[in-house]
Design a protein that fits this description.
- This protein is of the alpha/beta class and about 170 residues long.
- It is built from 5 helices and 6 strands, in the order βαβαβαβαββα.
- It has one domain: Rossmann fold.
- Strands 2-1-3-4 form a 4-stranded parallel beta sheet, with helices on both faces. A two-stranded antiparallel ribbon has the order 5-6.
- The radius of gyration is 17 Å and the shape is globular.
Amino acid sequence: MSLDAPHLAGNVDAAGLKVGIVASRFNADITEALLAGAVSALKEHGCAESDIVISHVPGAFEIGTIATKMANSGRFDAVVCLGCVIRGDTAHFDYVCQGAMDAIGKVAQRGDIGVGNGVLTVETHEQALERVGGAHGHKGEEAALTAVEVVRQLQWIDQIAIDQALEA
């Protein structure tokens, strides 16, 4: 069996997947648009609405806590993380962004669950708007479909291990 999976590149078939979404409430106009895009993309690609679980958290810093809990539960194939941090006049932006990204990265590095990172880190509200259907696409949709594609790659790798064990 070849270890190259060109047929899986871009596989965003979400049918049968259980997806957890963690969305922050801070900058709600942006995060609600991210959430709507993520849910829409999942449903358009075959995920049943009943297989999508949404958890709202206060801000981007708290996303990692709930994403970790979802991953540890074993109930989800993928976790989609959505939030928006807009730079202000203090260093708070840097700390929140670093903490959120580190926590999301730890979930992704586990290697057993698809993770989509849709946490926007922008300078202005206008830049955020450009990323929820404007000039820079829709980052909520992208995060959801990225998580699905990673799940399909993980499943393919698991299947290789099973096939190799059966051949032995």
